[in-house]
Design brief:
Blueprint (H helix, E strand, L loop, with lengths): L12 H23 L2 H23 L4 H5 L3 H12 L6 H14 L14 H12 L7 E2 L11 H10 L13 E2 L2 H10 L4 H4 L13 H17 L6 H20 L7 H6 L3 H8 L10 H21 L6 H18 L13
Antiparallel strand pairs: 1-2
Length: about 350
Amino acid sequence: MISSPYISQKTSVSIIMLKVMLALIPAIIAYVWYFGPAILISLTLASVTALGMEAAALKLRGLPIKPFLMDGSALVTAWLLALSIPSIAPWWLIVVGLFFAIIVAKHLYGGLGNNIFNPAMVGYAILIISFPVPMTQWASPDTLAGAHLGLIDAANYIFNGILPSHTSGIDAISTATPLDTLRTQLKLDHSVAQITQMPIFGAVGGQGSEIIAGLFLLGGVYMWLARIITWHIPVAFITALALISGVFYLINPAHYATPWLHLATGGAMLGAFFIATDPVSGATTPTGKLIFGAGIGILTYLIRTIGAYPDGVAFAVLLMNVAAPLIDQYTQPAVYGHKGNKS
């Protein structure tokens, strides 16, 4: 029998961050299965780099290193950035991205709890703007790759830029993303139906990436059940993206992709559950979260279809980060007993 005072056990930041990383593991396993083990090297490099930069920043700020280093926030940022960029990207790309994520976007704004932008997405945005060529070298699904890279081969390529002798070049191990392929082929006057018959596409999205997206969704549901996140932002994000892509698809199915392709490809599910739900840089009121999530979904679609980048999740999140304080200001619930409260 449960007795008073009915006080819930306090959840620490480190426990929350650990659960977030656990929620990512099923998708990471699928990533290795479909695209090879290079992502494990990227995640390890990102983790070590993020912890080193976090420790250095804390030392320079005169703060105790161990408690802040152990809270897990730097590791979550590292994993999100590593999962957002090509797994076979050169090592320095991860280091540069994490410098802007950890040092600039996080610590120059005062550390955890004070950043106005999502740190991982700041790192990603800097990389895609500054280094567009290496950011487009995504690993091919193993079923399509001309040469499979094992763990040692992948490490040799990431750190030294050397491919094993059995490959014929970078084209043997890399490919454009499904969204980039869709964008490029549409400019060549191919229809969506023709484009999605290409081997890189699967049943509803990109080959392999549709399964990974489903596992990000599963991880997000786990976080919701564990009360790490609320349903508002993910549901608003997914609904808005599905609705706007559905409207355009109904208007011109030959030129606009299906809603399920937009949901199952690119960073939609990772963004909806793991990035947009950042409690520091996002909206905090229930109504504000719905507006915030819907705004990201709409902006993601607009950037994907008429913007300069094939996947607009990062830029959509950063743009809505700017709007988050204003959204919260105008969606604060009325205080009980004050004018305007109807209860």
